[in-house]
Amino acid sequence: MLHRDYNENPFIVIWELTRACQLQCLHCRAEAQHHRHPLELTFEEGKKLIDDIYEMDNPMLVFTGGDPLERPDVFEIAEYAVKKGVRVSMTPSATPNVTKDAMKKAKDIGLSRWAFSIDGHCKEIHDHFRGTGGSFDLTMNAIHYLHELEMPLQINTVISRYNYEYLDEMAEMVEKLNCVLWSVFFLVPTGRGKETDMISAVEHERVFRWLYQLSKRVPFDIKTTAGQHYRRVVIQNKMREHKGMSDKEHIFYQDALDNGKTGQIDGLGRAPKGVNDGNGFVFISHTGDVFPSGLLPINAGNVRQTPLATIYRESEIFKNLRDPDKYKGKCGICEFRNVCGGSRSRAYNVTGDYMESEPYCVYIPRAMRGKKQTI
Asked: What range(s) does the Radical SAM core domain occupy (predicted)?
């Protein structure tokens, strides 16, 4: 795992089992529908896909949607993957599908972890963001069941203008819920997500600095999605804290791994180097289309016609995304480009070009300042 070459194999594969979902979230990437699509990958096609994923050095596999529990065969698919030795986790929606029986089934099959989304510290904010009344209470009940079953909990939170003012309250709640990982998403304006719902570039920076300080005192791990520049903020803070580190000529992702923690969470582990859209990360849609991520809607092929490994390794889109030296603007000359690289999906959705600079980053690279960096 430590020597995984992202040019050959991803660290994580996301498979959108279905777009069907009972919620109507304001930010929904998938613009989820109430009914399943007739051209979803079948159970047999899903097994073939899992075989192909396993052969790519057995990356982590996450079932997402829509709501994966809207597929009646979700547990059969999961069982097939787990029996092969694939590490599987799931991100279901907080709907009446999330029963204690469903969670017990997942545990008995051997799912590595269960992830729930909480986007507000109270039901008013969360339910507004999720577009469905009662979602907050359903989520809390489900987490209670999860703890009863002693299954590891991951909490996913989308940072937006709706909850930016309540981060301290959010952190306090997350800590009380006893999760192993808080996965903090930074809104990308795609699907139903709007640019007007996003926080500003300066606010992104404030949240990153706040997350770093939080990471030093909480028992759970923190990771960011579509917030690659958090890695830069972590390294900058560590440079301030550790004399001599600021003299380093080369900056590595390991420098950003938090506070001497082991990097091992309930057997899943953390990426040994920075993951970005198409670079250690691949997304497969409900109909088999392959994208660099669910937030970067450029189709690179379909697993019904082309093996996943061929698309991931040989697609021009994926190859471009794995070469930070090709990035445009300040991202292409930034000294943190191999560690950070900015969100390629946000660059695409804001500028129309997935190789453009991260548009919500305030940092000015050393090369643009014409002088030695001061920390």
From this structure: 7-221
Between 35 and 301, the higher pLDDT residue: 301
**How far is residue 172 CA from its own chain's centroid?**
22
Coil/strand/helix, residue 51? helix
Give me the CATH number covering residue 256: 3.20.20.70
To the nearest whole percent, how much of the chain has pLDDT over 70?
87
What is the three-class DSSP state of 114?
A: strand
Cα–Cα dist 5/261, whole Å: 23
pLDDT per residue as tens digits for the range 74-94: 999 999 999 999 999 998 887
- Tally of structural domains, the chain: 1
For the four alpha carbons of 188, 189, 192 and 198, in that order, the dihedral sign comes to positive
Question: What's the pLDDT band for 240 if we cut at 50, 70, 90?
Answer: confident
User: Model pTM?
Assistant: 0.89
Q: What is the pLDDT of residue 1?
A: 43
User: How many Å apart are CA 287 and CA 21, to the nearest integer?
Assistant: 16
Can you give the pLDDT at residue 242?
Answer: 74
Alpha helices (H) in the chain, listed in sequence order: 43-55, 74-84, 100-109, 123-130, 135-148, 167-176, 201-215, 230-241, 308-314, 316-321, 329-333, 344-351, 366-369
Q: Phi and psi of 293, rounded to 5°?
A: -165, 170
Q: Which residues have CB under 8 Å from 241's CB, separation 6+? A: none
Tell me whether residue 351 is in a domain.
no
Taking every pair of Cα atoms in the chain, the longest distance, rounded to a whole number of angstroms, is 61
Tokens matching residue 303: 């697993």
